[in-house]
């Protein structure tokens, strides 16, 4: 059994496995409104770094005061000693405050940028055509909104200001070392070069694994969403073991790529630490040699300050390496986010002003052609005319184009050619929301969200009273069930309530009745209910469809005997049309379908 969604392309799947600077530039544009806060944070980060740079030079001065005092008969100059101590305390306190404030500012920027990103991704989803969701797994979209944006947030929060601080610290320490003693400066740099070279070699190797890790996370999310939300199907087919194996394979790939990326990036810190420790040894050896040679440019305080500078020199290199690693992760994540945000949207319809104020319900299909793939038409040349108030049944074998037809009527997909008119107005000339507002739509697959029964029934509609709810629920046979609930309409729908598929369908039918649109689409709406409940709902449907143009997709032909017009579809075209009795009298394809369902009953 192939996994659900197997073979679907992943978001960002075609991106190169290297730092995507275009995506990082797009991310930078999201930060543009917060430039004052970012600049302030960067300035504070630089001030904090400067405090760290100046400190060792004052410590050298302090050690020289102590050394001179120990060698002198008069002892340590306490005034000079305390001046340096107080200066150092104030300096490091200023650095600590600056560091805290810059982290506070960047935390705020991070929260706002990620909020905007999630808002834009959510808004983008509503602007994408349904064809996009046909090719992308839902779990992949969830991964963009969670994993990928979280990675971006972590990078913004901990990397940008730290990178500025590290670069400032690196340059400042380099300058200070050459000012104090160029020989020891060269020794410190030489001992760190090896670690610095290895760091960039590692960065070049690790990026592809960060990219693959984000892809594996999306694949894992898609697998979990698709398999575990259909767990009953997996169980009923005995495929739990196979799906567990597939999960283990995806999980293993994620583990392998995560391990490789983290292991490679994790090498940078110990390498830089090793280089730093080697520099300490080299500084003491060369420094003592210079003192013994009688050099006046080197003192014991100079050697102590240089050991601190060596630590400060390797620390920003390590921080820069870690920042580059984080930027690589953010690059892979932002490439996926902006790949999704860059998808082609449904066309803007601001210029469309056509609107039907008094809907009668006359519908005309004229030479309609449509295919989900450009070279494979599902609806080949469909033409039909439906009078206002008619109940139209659409029947035919699986794949004939029944559901596709109503999807086109609702403008979920755009026609390849031809047109559809409502009361003489082309739906192409109307805004999508205006077209959809004309219809109630009840599908075979129920959809209920976390919330109360009331919230599910009055979904996106205001001014609904309890009396209206009572009438509708009575019509669909829900009154007794709701009356048995302790909180009635305010009962929260969750797994503990134990709703049957039939009850879920009754709720969705009641929701459509409350919406009370001029026209109605029913796509196998009673397929999940028992025969007795079907009769109750059928009576409610007769009331609901009375005087309205309604389109009923049905496989059980007994439910559409009273239809004013039956359209028999086959291979995307109308094979036959007429009333139930007329079609039976023709003894054609419809009669064949009907008799195949009822031959046992009628024999």
Brief sketch in words of this structure:
By secondary structure, the protein is α/β, with parallel strands linked by helices. The chain has helices at residues 21-30, 35-71, 78-127, 130-135, 138-158, 160-180, 182-228, 231-236, 240-292, 300-341, 402-409, 432-437, 453-457, 466-475, 479-483, 501-515, 531-545, 580-586, 589-602, and strands spanning 363-370, 379-386, 391-395, 417-422, 425-426, 439-442, 451-452, 492-493, 519-523, 549-553, 565-570, 573-578. The chain has two domains: 21-341, ABC transporter transmembrane region fold, CATH 1.20.1560; 363-602, Rossmann fold (3-Layer(aba) Sandwich), CATH 3.40.50.300.
């Amino acid at each position: 059994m192939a996994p659900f969604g197997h073979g679907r392309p992943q978001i960002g799947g075609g991106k190169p496995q290297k730092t995507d600077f275009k995506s990082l530039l797009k991310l930078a544009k999201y930060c543009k409104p917060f430039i004052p806060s970012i600049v302030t944070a960067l300035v504070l980060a630089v001030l904090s770094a400067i405090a760290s740079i100046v400190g060792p030079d004052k410590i050298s001065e302090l050690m020289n005061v102590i050394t001179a005092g120990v060698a002198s008969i008069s002892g340590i100059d306490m005034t000079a000693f305390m001046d340096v101590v107080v200066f150092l305390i104030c300096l490091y306190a200023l650095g600590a405050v600056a560091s805290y404030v810059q982290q506070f500012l960047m935390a705020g920027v991070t929260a706002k940028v990620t909020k905007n990103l999630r808002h834009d991704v959510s808004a983008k989803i509503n602007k994408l055509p349904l064809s996009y969701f046909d090719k992308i797994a839902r779990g992949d979209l969830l991964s963009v909104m969670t994993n990928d944006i979280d990675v971006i947030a972590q990078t913004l929060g901990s990397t940008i200001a730290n990178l500025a601080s590290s670069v400032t610290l690196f340059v400042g320490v380099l300058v200070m070392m050459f000012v104090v003693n160029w020989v020891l400066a060269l020794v410190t740099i030489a001992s760190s070069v090896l670690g610095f070279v290895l760091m960039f070699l590692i960065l070049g190797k690790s990026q592809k694994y960060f990219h693959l890790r984000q892809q594996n996370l999306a694949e894992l999310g898609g697998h979990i969403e698709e398999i575990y939300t259909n767990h009953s199907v997996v169980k009923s087919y005995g495929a739990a073991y196979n799906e567990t194996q597939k999960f283990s394979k995806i999980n293993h790939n994620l583990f392998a790529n995560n391990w490789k990326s983290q292991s490679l990036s994790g090498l940078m810190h110990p390498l830089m630490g090793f280089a730093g420790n080697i520099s300490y040894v080299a500084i003491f050896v060369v420094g003592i040699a210079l003192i013994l040679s009688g050099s006046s440019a080197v003192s014991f305080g100079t050697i102590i300050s240089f050991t601190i500078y060596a630590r400060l020199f390797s620390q920003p290199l390590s921080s820069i390496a870690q920042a580059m690693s984080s930027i690589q992760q953010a690059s892979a994540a932002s490439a996926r986010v902006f790949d999704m945000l860059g998808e082609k949207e449904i066309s803007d319809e601001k210029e469309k002003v056509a609107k039907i104020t008094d809907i009668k319900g006359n519908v005309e299909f004229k030479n309609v052609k449509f295919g989900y793939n450009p070279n494979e038409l599902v609806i080949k040349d469909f033409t039909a005319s439906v009078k206002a108030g008619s109940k139209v049944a659409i029947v035919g074998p699986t794949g004939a184009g029944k559901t596709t037809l109503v999807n086109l009527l609702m403008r979920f997909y755009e026609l390849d050619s031809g047109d559809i008119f409502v009361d003489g107005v082309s739906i192409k000339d109307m805004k999508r929301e205006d077209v959809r507002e004309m219809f109630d739509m009840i599908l075979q697959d129920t959809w209920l969200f976390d919330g109360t029964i009331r919230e599910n029934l009055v979904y996106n509609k205001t001014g609904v009273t309890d009396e209206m709810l009572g009438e509708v629920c009575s019509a669909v046979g829900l009154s007794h069930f709701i009356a048995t609930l302790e909180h009635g309409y305010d009962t929260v729908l969750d797994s503990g309530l134990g709703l049957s598929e039939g009850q879920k369908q009754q709720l969705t039918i009641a929701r459509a009745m409350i919406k009370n649109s001029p026209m109605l689409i029913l796509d196998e709406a009673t397929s999940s209910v028992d025969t007795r409940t079907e009769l109750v709902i059928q009576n409610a449907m007769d009331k609901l469809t009375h005087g309205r143009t309604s389109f009923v997709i049905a496989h059980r032909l007994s439910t559409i005997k009273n239809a004013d017009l039956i359209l028999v579809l086959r291979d995307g075209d109308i094979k036959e049309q007429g009333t139930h009795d007329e079609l039976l009298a023709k003894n054609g394809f419809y009669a064949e379908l009907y008799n195949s369902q009822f031959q046992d009953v009628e024999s």
